[in-house]
Amino acid sequence: MHQLDSRLGNFAARWRVLAAAAAIALLVSACGLLSDDETDATTTTAGEDGAMTETEADTPTMVTAAPTTTAADDAMAEDEPDGPDVTVESKLSTAGLGPVQIGHSLDDARTAAGALLIAVPGGSDACRYYTVQNGPEGVRFLAVNAEIVRVDIEAGPITTISGYGIGSTRSEIVEAFGDRIEDGPGLSAIQYVPVDAPDIDKRVVWEVDEAGAVISLRAGRLPHIEPRVACTG
pLDDT tens-digit profile of 171-182? Predict the structure, then answer.
Protein backbone atom coordinates (compact mmCIF):
# COMPACT_ATOMS: atom_id res chain seq x y z
CA MET A 1 0.00 0.00 0.00
CA HIS A 2 2.84 2.38 0.80
CA GLN A 3 4.44 1.65 -2.61
CA LEU A 4 1.17 2.42 -4.43
CA ASP A 5 0.92 5.84 -2.77
CA SER A 6 4.51 6.60 -3.71
CA ARG A 7 3.91 5.76 -7.38
CA LEU A 8 0.78 7.90 -7.48
CA GLY A 9 2.72 10.81 -6.02
CA ASN A 10 5.48 10.50 -8.63
CA PHE A 11 2.92 10.33 -11.45
CA ALA A 12 1.19 13.50 -10.22
CA ALA A 13 4.50 15.38 -10.03
CA ARG A 14 5.43 14.40 -13.58
CA TRP A 15 1.99 15.51 -14.81
CA ARG A 16 2.44 18.91 -13.24
CA VAL A 17 5.84 19.32 -14.93
CA LEU A 18 4.46 18.40 -18.36
CA ALA A 19 1.49 20.74 -17.93
CA ALA A 20 3.79 23.66 -17.01
CA ALA A 21 6.05 22.99 -20.02
CA ALA A 22 3.07 22.96 -22.38
CA ALA A 23 1.81 26.27 -20.97
CA ILE A 24 5.23 27.92 -21.49
CA ALA A 25 5.36 26.64 -25.10
CA LEU A 26 1.94 28.11 -25.87
CA LEU A 27 2.95 31.50 -24.36
CA VAL A 28 6.17 31.69 -26.44
CA SER A 29 4.24 30.86 -29.61
CA ALA A 30 1.69 33.59 -28.94
CA CYS A 31 4.47 36.18 -28.36
CA GLY A 32 6.08 35.24 -31.67
CA LEU A 33 2.85 35.77 -33.57
CA LEU A 34 2.33 39.17 -31.91
CA SER A 35 5.87 40.24 -32.80
CA ASP A 36 5.45 39.34 -36.51
CA ASP A 37 2.22 41.39 -36.78
CA GLU A 38 3.82 44.48 -35.28
CA THR A 39 6.86 44.22 -37.55
CA ASP A 40 4.62 44.37 -40.65
CA ALA A 41 3.09 47.65 -39.48
CA THR A 42 6.22 49.52 -38.40
CA THR A 43 9.81 50.19 -39.39
CA THR A 44 12.64 50.59 -36.92
CA THR A 45 14.99 53.54 -37.59
CA ALA A 46 17.83 55.26 -35.78
CA GLY A 47 17.08 58.61 -34.13
CA GLU A 48 19.48 61.56 -33.94
CA ASP A 49 20.69 60.34 -30.54
CA GLY A 50 21.45 56.84 -31.83
CA ALA A 51 18.35 55.30 -30.15
CA MET A 52 16.11 53.08 -32.21
CA THR A 53 12.58 54.42 -32.77
CA GLU A 54 9.59 53.09 -34.65
CA THR A 55 7.99 55.13 -37.48
CA GLU A 56 5.36 54.34 -40.05
CA ALA A 57 7.09 52.68 -43.02
CA ASP A 58 4.92 54.14 -45.81
CA THR A 59 5.06 57.85 -44.79
CA PRO A 60 7.43 59.84 -47.15
CA THR A 61 9.41 62.84 -45.89
CA MET A 62 10.08 65.88 -48.17
CA VAL A 63 12.66 68.57 -47.43
CA THR A 64 12.57 71.87 -49.35
CA ALA A 65 15.64 74.13 -49.31
CA ALA A 66 14.97 77.85 -48.88
CA PRO A 67 16.45 80.12 -51.65
CA THR A 68 19.70 81.77 -50.72
CA THR A 69 21.71 84.74 -52.04
CA THR A 70 25.45 85.12 -52.09
CA ALA A 71 27.73 88.09 -51.59
CA ALA A 72 28.56 87.97 -55.31
CA ASP A 73 24.85 88.22 -56.20
CA ASP A 74 24.46 91.26 -53.94
CA ALA A 75 27.56 92.91 -55.41
CA MET A 76 26.32 92.31 -58.95
CA ALA A 77 22.94 93.87 -58.13
CA GLU A 78 24.64 96.91 -56.63
CA ASP A 79 26.88 97.28 -59.72
CA GLU A 80 24.04 97.21 -62.20
CA PRO A 81 23.93 100.60 -63.94
CA ASP A 82 20.79 102.74 -63.63
CA GLY A 83 21.45 104.59 -66.90
CA PRO A 84 23.43 107.73 -67.72
CA ASP A 85 23.15 110.88 -65.62
CA VAL A 86 22.72 112.94 -68.79
CA THR A 87 19.04 112.68 -69.73
CA VAL A 88 16.33 114.60 -71.56
CA GLU A 89 15.70 116.35 -68.23
CA SER A 90 19.25 117.80 -68.18
CA LYS A 91 19.52 121.55 -68.79
CA LEU A 92 21.96 123.47 -70.99
CA SER A 93 23.83 126.53 -69.72
CA THR A 94 27.17 128.29 -70.06
CA ALA A 95 28.43 125.78 -67.45
CA GLY A 96 27.63 122.74 -69.62
CA LEU A 97 24.87 120.14 -69.79
CA GLY A 98 23.62 118.66 -66.55
CA PRO A 99 26.55 117.16 -64.61
CA VAL A 100 29.01 117.45 -67.53
CA GLN A 101 30.77 120.80 -67.41
CA ILE A 102 32.72 122.87 -69.88
CA GLY A 103 36.38 122.35 -68.93
CA HIS A 104 35.99 118.71 -67.85
CA SER A 105 38.62 116.29 -69.09
CA LEU A 106 37.25 113.34 -71.04
CA ASP A 107 37.76 111.10 -68.02
CA ASP A 108 35.94 113.55 -65.72
CA ALA A 109 33.17 113.92 -68.29
CA ARG A 110 32.68 110.13 -68.44
CA THR A 111 32.45 109.98 -64.66
CA ALA A 112 30.00 112.88 -64.52
CA ALA A 113 27.86 111.46 -67.33
CA GLY A 114 27.69 108.06 -65.61
CA ALA A 115 28.29 106.36 -68.96
CA LEU A 116 30.83 105.86 -71.69
CA LEU A 117 31.44 108.62 -74.22
CA ILE A 118 31.34 107.26 -77.76
CA ALA A 119 33.53 108.99 -80.37
CA VAL A 120 31.62 110.23 -83.41
CA PRO A 121 33.28 109.24 -86.72
CA GLY A 122 35.41 112.04 -88.16
CA GLY A 123 37.64 114.61 -86.51
CA SER A 124 40.85 113.68 -84.71
CA ASP A 125 42.31 113.36 -81.22
CA ALA A 126 42.77 117.14 -81.30
CA CYS A 127 39.10 117.84 -82.10
CA ARG A 128 36.29 115.27 -81.87
CA TYR A 129 32.61 114.99 -81.00
CA TYR A 130 31.33 112.43 -78.50
CA THR A 131 27.89 111.08 -77.63
CA VAL A 132 26.76 109.53 -74.34
CA GLN A 133 26.17 105.78 -74.49
CA ASN A 134 22.42 105.22 -74.13
CA GLY A 135 22.07 108.96 -73.64
CA PRO A 136 19.48 111.32 -75.10
CA GLU A 137 19.21 111.69 -78.85
CA GLY A 138 20.78 114.69 -80.53
CA VAL A 139 23.34 115.48 -77.79
CA ARG A 140 27.03 115.81 -78.69
CA PHE A 141 30.00 116.93 -76.61
CA LEU A 142 32.96 118.56 -78.36
CA ALA A 143 36.41 117.77 -76.94
CA VAL A 144 39.53 119.68 -77.99
CA ASN A 145 42.74 118.07 -76.83
CA ALA A 146 40.70 115.77 -74.56
CA GLU A 147 38.89 118.69 -72.84
CA ILE A 148 35.14 119.38 -73.12
CA VAL A 149 34.74 122.84 -74.68
CA ARG A 150 31.21 122.73 -76.09
CA VAL A 151 27.84 120.95 -76.04
CA ASP A 152 25.56 120.72 -79.10
CA ILE A 153 21.82 119.95 -79.03
CA GLU A 154 20.74 118.97 -82.54
CA ALA A 155 17.42 117.28 -81.69
CA GLY A 156 15.16 116.39 -78.80
CA PRO A 157 13.46 118.24 -75.94
CA ILE A 158 16.52 119.53 -74.02
CA THR A 159 16.39 123.26 -73.33
CA THR A 160 18.37 125.89 -71.49
CA ILE A 161 17.76 126.42 -67.76
CA SER A 162 15.29 129.18 -68.75
CA GLY A 163 13.38 126.75 -70.95
CA TYR A 164 14.39 127.79 -74.48
CA GLY A 165 15.21 125.02 -76.94
CA ILE A 166 14.26 123.62 -80.32
CA GLY A 167 10.88 125.09 -81.30
CA SER A 168 11.28 128.27 -79.26
CA THR A 169 11.36 131.55 -81.20
CA ARG A 170 13.86 134.33 -81.60
CA SER A 171 11.39 136.90 -80.28
CA GLU A 172 10.74 134.85 -77.08
CA ILE A 173 14.46 134.64 -76.33
CA VAL A 174 15.13 138.32 -77.00
CA GLU A 175 12.20 139.28 -74.79
CA ALA A 176 13.46 137.03 -71.98
CA PHE A 177 17.11 138.19 -71.95
CA GLY A 178 16.97 141.72 -73.38
CA ASP A 179 20.35 143.25 -74.18
CA ARG A 180 22.18 140.07 -73.21
CA ILE A 181 21.14 138.71 -76.64
CA GLU A 182 23.27 139.59 -79.66
CA ASP A 183 23.08 138.56 -83.29
CA GLY A 184 25.44 135.86 -84.54
CA PRO A 185 27.67 134.10 -84.73
CA GLY A 186 26.79 133.56 -88.37
CA LEU A 187 23.80 134.92 -90.22
CA SER A 188 21.16 132.56 -88.74
CA ALA A 189 21.96 132.61 -85.02
CA ILE A 190 21.50 134.63 -81.86
CA GLN A 191 23.64 134.28 -78.74
CA TYR A 192 23.49 134.94 -75.03
CA VAL A 193 26.53 136.95 -73.85
CA PRO A 194 27.29 136.74 -70.10
CA VAL A 195 28.61 139.70 -68.13
CA ASP A 196 29.95 137.82 -65.10
CA ALA A 197 33.74 137.36 -65.12
CA PRO A 198 33.80 133.54 -64.76
CA ASP A 199 31.61 133.15 -67.88
CA ILE A 200 32.83 136.08 -69.97
CA ASP A 201 34.37 133.78 -72.60
CA LYS A 202 31.32 131.50 -72.85
CA ARG A 203 28.16 131.70 -74.94
CA VAL A 204 24.79 130.03 -75.47
CA VAL A 205 23.88 130.02 -79.15
CA TRP A 206 20.50 129.28 -80.81
CA GLU A 207 20.37 128.62 -84.54
CA VAL A 208 17.09 129.84 -86.06
CA ASP A 209 15.38 129.29 -89.41
CA GLU A 210 13.93 131.96 -91.72
CA ALA A 211 10.73 132.09 -89.66
CA GLY A 212 12.73 132.75 -86.49
CA ALA A 213 12.17 129.30 -84.91
CA VAL A 214 15.06 127.61 -83.11
CA ILE A 215 16.38 124.54 -84.96
CA SER A 216 19.41 123.77 -82.74
CA LEU A 217 21.32 125.18 -79.77
CA ARG A 218 24.75 124.91 -78.22
CA ALA A 219 26.82 126.21 -75.32
CA GLY A 220 30.55 126.48 -74.88
CA ARG A 221 33.73 128.46 -74.82
CA LEU A 222 35.17 130.90 -77.34
CA PRO A 223 36.43 130.39 -80.01
CA HIS A 224 35.09 126.79 -80.25
CA ILE A 225 31.48 127.89 -79.86
CA GLU A 226 31.41 130.06 -82.99
CA PRO A 227 31.24 127.69 -85.98
CA ARG A 228 27.95 125.88 -86.42
CA VAL A 229 29.82 122.61 -86.96
CA ALA A 230 33.25 122.19 -85.39
CA CYS A 231 36.19 119.90 -86.28
CA THR A 232 35.81 120.52 -90.01
CA GLY A 233 39.29 121.97 -90.62
Answer: 999 999 999 999
